[in-house]
């Protein structure tokens, strides 16, 4: 089929075997190298302990504990990927404007955390916006003058750069009213680069950080669903066989 089939034969075969998400899963994991390093270190440590214990007098007792724990872990992995997959479908249905897990809407709680971050640690929230390439919590929240369902208070508490400007001038400011001298003076006053924060915030006005967080969760839940279930079933099966063979008579 791969040799004589259509041009997209390989893609069709991967889709039929439910393997089309494996390359995407790898690409997703490589975006978070620290996670890969931590998981790899944990697996290496566990493997080293298992290797050293195998064949010793306490080896059977070790496996009687080790195998059931792996079974519990595999069940937890399966539960987690199913929950994330269902959450990804809910996120997609809300146009990435709501994050619901097991029926609980986490969007208001996340908004409170975002507002607290803007007020308590404005510089860090500016850096977060720059790294994630988003502006404010909701889409178009940092537009001045505010439109739609947003108020001036929403702009001030949701947009780090506008929060600094409002504290200095008494109100959020549109680009036409902001000069480099004003931003430089504010930067000297607060001790960090307000100008850079403001310009980065203006670049992504239509892309709120909630959308970015929702898209990340959507990717994780949707892409890792099949690989996660396969790994969980594989680990559970091996652990069940190991538990049966050891009989857990320690």
Question: Can you put this structure into words, describing what you see?
Answer:
Residues 1-5 have low confidence and may be disordered. A two-stranded antiparallel ribbon has the order 1-2. It is 69% helix and 2% strand. It has twelve helices and two strands. It folds into two domains: 10-95 and 224-246, no CATH class; 104-213, no CATH class. With 250 residues, it is an all-alpha fold. It has helices spanning 9-16, 22-30, 33-53, 59-93, 107-120, 122-132, 152-158, 160-169, 180-190, 194-203, 209-223, 225-246; strands at residues 100-101, 104-105. The longest helix is centred in the N-terminal third of the chain and has 35 residues, at 59-93. Helix 5 packs across helix 6 (122-132) and helix 6 packs across helix 10. The radius of gyration is 25 Å and the shape is elongated. Keywords: Membrane, Transmembrane, Transmembrane helix. The chain crosses the membrane at residues 32-53, 65-87, 223-245.
- What is the average per-residue confidence, as pLDDT, rounded to a whole number? 81
Q: Give the N-to-C terminal Cα separation.
A: 53 Å
Give the overall shape.
elongated
User: β content, as a range?
Assistant: under 5%
Q: Biggest sheet, strands in spatial order?
A: 1-2
Query: Which blocks of ≥5 consecutive residues have pLDDT under 50?
Result: 1-5
Radius of gyration: 25 Å
N-to-C order of helices and strands: HHHHEEHHHHHHHH
Structural class: mainly alpha
The largest sheet, given as strand count, sense and whether it forms a barrel, is: 2 strands, antiparallel
The helix tally amounts to 12
Strand count: 2
Helix content: 55-70%
Number of structural domains: 2
């Amino acid at each position: 089929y791969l040799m004589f089939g259509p041009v997209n034969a390989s893609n069709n075969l991967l889709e039929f075997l439910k393997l089309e998400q494996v390359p995407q899963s790898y690409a997703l994991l490589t975006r978070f190298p620290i996670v890969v390093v931590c998981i790899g270190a944990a697996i290496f440590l566990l493997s080293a302990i298992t290797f050293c214990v195998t064949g010793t007098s306490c080896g059977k007792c070790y496996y009687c504990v080790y195998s059931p724990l792996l079974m519990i872990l595999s069940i937890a992995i399966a539960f987690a990927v199913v929950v994330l997959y269902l959450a990804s479908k809910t996120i997609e249905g809300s146009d990435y404007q709501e994050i619901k897990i097991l029926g609980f809407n986490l969007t208001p709680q996340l908004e409170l955390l975002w507002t607290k971050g803007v007020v308590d640690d404005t510089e860090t929230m500016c850096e977060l916006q720059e790294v994630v390439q988003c502006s404010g919590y909701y889409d178009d929240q940092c537009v001045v003058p505010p439109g739609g369902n947003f108020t001036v208070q929403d702009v001030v508490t949701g947009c780090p750069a506008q929060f600094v400007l409002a504290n200095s001038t008494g109100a959020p400011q549109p680009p036409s009213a902001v000069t480099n001298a004003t931003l430089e003076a504010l930067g000297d006053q607060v001790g960090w680069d307000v100008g850079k924060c403001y310009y980065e915030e203006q670049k992504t006005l239509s892309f709120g950080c909630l959308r970015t967080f929702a898209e990340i969760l959507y990717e994780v839940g949707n892409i890792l669903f099949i690989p996660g279930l396969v790994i969980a079933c594989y680990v559970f099966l091996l652990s069940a066989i190991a538990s049966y063979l050891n009989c857990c008579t320690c």
